Amino acid sequence: MKDFLLFSGSSNRPLAEAVVKKLGMTLGNVELTRFADG
């Protein structure tokens, strides 16, 4: 699956890690920002 990237937000990173492990992939890099109002 070279042509696919998987990205994870902050809600369930362990699930994303399990999925990429099962598929033999790695997680794509992402930068998350949180705003003061939630």
Condensed summary:
By secondary structure, the chain is an all-alpha fold.
What are the SSEs and their pairings?
Elements: H1 13-23
What descriptors fit this protein?
about 40 residues; mainly alpha; about 30% helix
Report the uncertain regions: none
Q: Number of DSSP strands?
A: 0
pLDDT averaged residue by residue: 88
Order of helices and strands: H
The radius of gyration is 12 Å
Spatial shape: elongated
Multimeric state of these chains? single chain
Beta-strand content estimate? under 5%
**Separate helix tally:** 1
Helix content percent band: 25-40%
Instruction: Report the end-to-end length measured between terminal Cα atoms.
Output: 36 Å
Report the structural category: mainly alpha
What's the main sheet like? none
Number of domains: 1
Descriptive overview:
- By secondary structure, the chain is mainly alpha-helical.
- The protein has one domain (1-30).
- 29% of the residues lie in helices and 0% in strands.
- The protein contains one helix and no strands.
- The protein has one helix at residues 13-23.
- The longest helix is centred in the middle third of the chain and has 11 residues, at 13-23.
- The mean pLDDT is 88.
